Amino acid sequence: MQWTDTANPATFHKVVDCQWACPAHTPVPEYIRLIAQGRHDEAYWVNWVSNVFPGVLGRTCDRPCEPACRRGRVEEKQAAKPEPVAICRLKRVAADSKTDEFRAMLPKPAARNGKRVACVGAGPASLAVARDLALAGYAVTVFDGEAKPGGFIRTQIPRFRLPERVIDEECGYILGLGVAWRPGQRVDSMKALLAEGYDAVFVGCGAPRGRDLNLPGRDATRAQVHIGIAWLSSVSFGHVTAVQPRVVVLGGGNTAMDCCRSARRLGARSVTVAVRSGYAQMKASPWEKEDAEHEGIPILDFHVPLAFEHAEGRLTGMRFRKAQTGEEVVIPCDEVLIAVGQENAFPWIERDAGIVFGDDGLPVLDKASFQSTLPHVFFGGDAAFGPKNIITAVAHGHEAAVSIDRLLHGEPVTQRPPPHVNLVSQKMGIHEWSYDNAISLDLRSKVPWAAAAEALASIKVEVELGFDAATALKEAQRCLNCDVQTVFAPKLCIECDACVDICPMDCITFTDDGPGLRERLNAPALNADQDVYVAGGLKTGRVMAKDEDVCLHCGLCAERCPTGAWDMQKFMLVTAKAGAACRDHATRKEVA
Fold first, then answer.
1. Which value, in Å, is the radius of gyration of the alpha carbons in the chain?
2. What confidence tier does 587 reach under pLDDT thresholds 50, 70, 90?
3. Residue 592: CB atoms within 10 Å
4. What digits encode the pLDDT tens for the residues 293-352?
5. How many other β-carbons are positioned within 10 Å of the β-carbon of residue 230?
6. At a CB cut-off of 8 Å and minimum separation 6, what does 535 contact?
7. Contact, 439 vs 74, CB < 8 A?
8. pLDDT by residue (tens digit) across 235-257?
9. What's the rounded mean pLDDT across residues 495-499?
10. Is 70 exceeded by the pLDDT of residue 142?
11. What is the pLDDT of residue 385?
């Protein structure tokens, strides 16, 4: 069997499940430890480097890190429903608890290098590009049709989930790096923009068009039926301040959840969500569905919309077919919000500008570099591959910025720079580590909410109040420090089996090399998505095999080992950002 290559950065990165799952590869355990130590400025900094919008994401992220969290796999003994660490809400703790001194930590942009880059749209992807390139010395200009930056973060996420002050603050950090901000300047011609002589253009204009439902009665009820994302924008800007008494929301994604909860706050007596799919198959995050139901909003699954019922020019109800029974039902309503998906729209990009589009209406891109068929034009965020989420848009922005930087330094954009990686022993003494390795048995902490009467009375009252200091500390201590790796030195091992005896998860086995290793471990390694750490070179010819899937990183193996063959080493991986570190030749002079 092939032994594990511990020199490969992916080997230990994959063990840090939360960081591996995060599109921006945020070093989650690192910032959680800093929060536990009360070092909130530094915790925010770790986030800011990776994901750009810690305060925004700490409230609104889709949290791909949390389903991946090891805690949710190893907690069966403590809870009927194992739950991950509240990673997202701890990010908010860092954002809310940082001091004004954080501003002194913000880096200064490098000297201008003479290159100009235009960003179309001021959403998370464009702003991530702008931040990374501004720091690297580029003159970046961001164009947007709105008066303030943020894109769909500002226009489509309700204020009861994300206060405007948080958006202003974190967008301000980016514009404060010398980024030229062009509000109210919607780009309506790619050819005209290219004629302005920019060295590169990044398109991050999102997926601005909401899908409609052309069902019977749609034209007759046009005044009472609205496209969800456009309606949310109108609410955000104060153009819509009230709704009709009975509202039906069509769709099962996060936008539908925002629509129904907003309608509830704008005065609707009755709000109902109807979705074609089953409840479990809805695209909305589980917590988004739970929040809506917590506020008394029913979600009716397997309801296929058939028609808009109307009388004398007024909407009276929505007719559905129940997919499981074939029965037709009418839900009385005075207003309908359609939130069944979003589409991309690029009417401002001339089809003879040199950018090829596919049959799906999306630009043809290199998936690694985000480069279009016009070499100096790049796409990212929802504009690249369709609607996703904020953290994915940020990750796109980082990669596109690297590509732009490499292109303008004459280097291949499809080659990606390696991450910065190191391993540092945490040994402080014979049986003492520099981190707290005690395993907390506490269950996941609940985020407190504002009182229902107050929260539902206003569209601007933030519902979640965030963790206080004591709860944040308690939750941070649930983290298993998965980035503190168990590193094995075969030459020091005397095969005494002390580590095998003490391991609480039975995840270490000394056995003969050969096939079927997963099944021959003391506790079979059942999760094929996580590797088994295999080390050879032992004196008996056997191998050490450790199931990385369920290891608690408790350090007991290293504490018990009489020869120091096991060590606990903190693994840090930071992806390369635009600038000298992302280039093949850091000393290369600027390309003319």
1. 26
2. very low
3. 5
4. 999 999 999 999 999 999 988 999 999 999 999 999 999 999 999 999 998 889 999 999
5. 17
6. 3, 4, 488, 490, 543, 544
7. no
8. 999 999 999 999 999 999 999 99
9. 96
10. yes
11. 94
For residue 473, what is the enclosing H or E element? helix 469-476
3-class DSSP assignment, residue 39: coil
Compute the C-alpha angle 520/523/526, nearest 5°.
85
Q: Are 336 and 247 in contact (CB under 8 A)?
A: yes
- Please give the Cα distance from 251 to 305 (Å, whole number): 10
Report which secondary-structure segment, H or E, holds 511. Answer: strand 508-511
Backbone phi, then psi, for 428, in 5-degree steps?
-115, -15
- d(C-alpha 463, C-alpha 369), whole Å: 39
The arithmetic mean of pLDDT across residues 431-458, rounded, is 90
Handedness of CA 572, 575, 578, 581 (dihedral sign): positive
User: Any alpha helices (H) in 52-144, and if so which ranges?
Assistant: 54-60, 65-68, 71-74, 87-97, 124-135
Q: Write the DSSP string, 107-133.
A: PPPPPP-S-EEEEES-SHHHHHHHHHH
Q: Which residues contact 582 (CB under 8 A, 6 or more apart)?
A: 402, 405, 406, 417, 576
pTM of the model: 0.94
Average pLDDT of the chain to the nearest whole number = 94
pLDDT at residue 170 above 80? yes
Residue 209: burial class (beta carbons within 10 Å; 0-12, 13-18, 19+): middle
Contacts 24+ apart (CB under 8 A), 100-108: 101/41, 102/41, 102/44, 102/45, 105/41, 105/45, 106/173, 106/176, 106/177, 107/135
Alpha helices by DSSP H, listed for 148-277, are 152-155, 164-175, 190-194, 228-236, 254-265
Q: How many angstroms from the chain centroid is the CA of residue 568?
A: 29
Structure confidence by residue, pLDDT tens digits, 79-117: 778 899 999 999 999 999 999 999 999 999 999 999 999
Distance CA 134, CA 366 (A): 24
d(CA 21, CA 24): 9
Question: What integer pLDDT is reported at residue 77 of this predicted model?
Answer: 65
Closest CA to 236 of 127, 329, 160, 132: 160
Task: Please name the residues in contact with 400: beta carbons below 8 A apart, sequence gap of 6 or more.
Answer: 125, 129, 202, 369, 370, 378, 379, 380
Q: Which two tokens stand for residue 377?
A: 């034009």
- Residue 294 belongs to what H/E stretch? helix 286-294
